[in-house]
Design goal:
Elements lengths: L1 H15 L3 H13 L5 H13 L3 H14 L4 H13 L3 H14 L4 H13 L3 H14 L4 H13 L3 H14 L4 H14 L2 H14 L4 H10 L7 H10 L6 H17 L3 H18 L4 H16 L14 E7 L5 H8 L5 E3 L5 H11 L4 H19 L4 E4 L8 H7 L4 E6 L2 H9 L14 H22 L3 E5 H6 L1 H12 L45 H7 L5
Parallel strand pairs: 1-3, 1-4, 2-3, 4-5
Helix pairs in contact: 1-2, 2-3, 3-4, 3-5, 4-5, 5-6, 6-7, 7-8, 8-9, 9-10, 10-11, 11-12, 11-13, 12-13, 13-15, 14-15, 15-16, 17-23, 19-20, 22-23
Length: 543
Amino acid sequence: MENLEKKLNDIQKLYSQKKFQLALQKANKLIKTNKNNPVVFNYRGIILVAMKNYSDALRDFEKALIFKPDFAEAFSNMGMAYQGMKKNTDAIKCYQKAIEHDKNALHFQFNLANLYLELNKVDMALHVLRKILAQNEQLEHGHHLIAEAYIRNLKFDLAFEHHLRAHQISPQNAMNDYLLGVDYIWKGDNTNAEKHLTNAIKLNPKFTKAFFALSRIKKMTPQHDVCKAVLALNKHPDLSPEDLIFTEFTLFKIYSESKLFTESYPHLARGNLLMKKQQPFSIANTRSLFLSIKNLYHHQDEKLISSDKSFPTPVFIVGMPRSGSSLLEQILTASELIFGAGELNDIHLHLLQAVEAKQEFNKVMPTIRDNYIERIGNLSNKPYIIDKLPLNFYWLGFIKRLFPNCKIIHTIRDPIDICFSIYSNLFVNGTLEFAYDEKDIVDYYHAYEDLMAFWMNELGSDILSVKYEDLVKNPVAEVPKIFDFIGIEFQNDYLAIEKNKRSVRTASDIQIRQAIHKNSVSKWQAYKPFLNTLIAAFGSNRF
């Protein structure tokens, strides 16, 4: 028995070092002499999951359960294999089985909560996480996860409370100060944000995300100690690609704020190149997707959905990212009748999955509609709810069939301003793969133009187009037209967006705390010598 335990420990050590092939070889040998031992099969199954050999892993977990039917760990690991195969219903059942057999092993419950979050089943995740914290309120990770769930449900104050609790449990964990710093940015409290981000850096001098967040709210010159620290980090030979991305974008921000454009641009270019390597983009795939969307729309049942209006009216703000949707949401949410939900990805992800899986839209759309109605109904009881996910422009015809009473607002802006703004911002991994190369951005912009022309032809007056430049130059004239389109009476105080204190989670969270201004118009001009690709694409066809 001692010999078996030692061999299992050796396998565990190789696994922790990510030497999966060596670990598998040792597990194979061990199974030959332990053919009825469920633990050995479970070990090999875990290794196979790490190697993404999910089918063989499942067979090992099944064998383990033959010898030990109440083996909770094997059920949980089987859930991980199903999750890797995207068989999420099976994964959920396995995690639930593991919990049934061992209610005290909280990591099984964490696995289930994580899957619910991955599937955007936020209320189910919250139910599990509340039970976890009821069993042990001192679990720092539990507070992190439940805060993430509350953020998904736009309950920012509740998320903040759990980040505070995590900080109380582990004040020396730099991540807790970082999370509080980001919370304060969303709240518009830059003083406390700076305090916590600075403390995060003191606790972890290599915390590049904290440096980047700090550069977004604090103006610094290249002589500032923070800039010097980031420059030193940027030259560190052991810095990971992810950390290098944050240092490059931080330095771009600092030099740009000091109007040292020649010095700032190389950092932007290097940061984007690193991001592009992590997130490959294919314009051919995008064009093919857009063509499929057009064809699906023309072949779908137009009378699929009733015009029931027993739920909040969605107001969809769509267009290219960085085209002014956050500013427009900030203006509109000054009305007590409108709730700003930010960027909800429910419709986009579900319809995208339906296209990729070649599902019949007539069958999946009622479910998508019902889930979305439930989602927005849980967010607010106000009569109008804004969903400003820009990429909803993919699905406008389908959205209008799902919600005949919805309002669709298309924000448009100078294409070079849009493309450069995209190129100069760092987005969440996996969201905008085209954003890190000028040619990719241009190609995507043209594909967007083509699809929007299709929707404008199909939907016509159902879409209100709002020009960003007109909005910021003459808001007194433009904003009342937008409220009229929605069906709400305009009031002059709606224009004082700097007084709108709601929490904001967007790349524009800093800018929209200010009064409406024209500072972002033609901002690309400062970088004109470097933007040959953008100028060649749009220079003779200016907006």
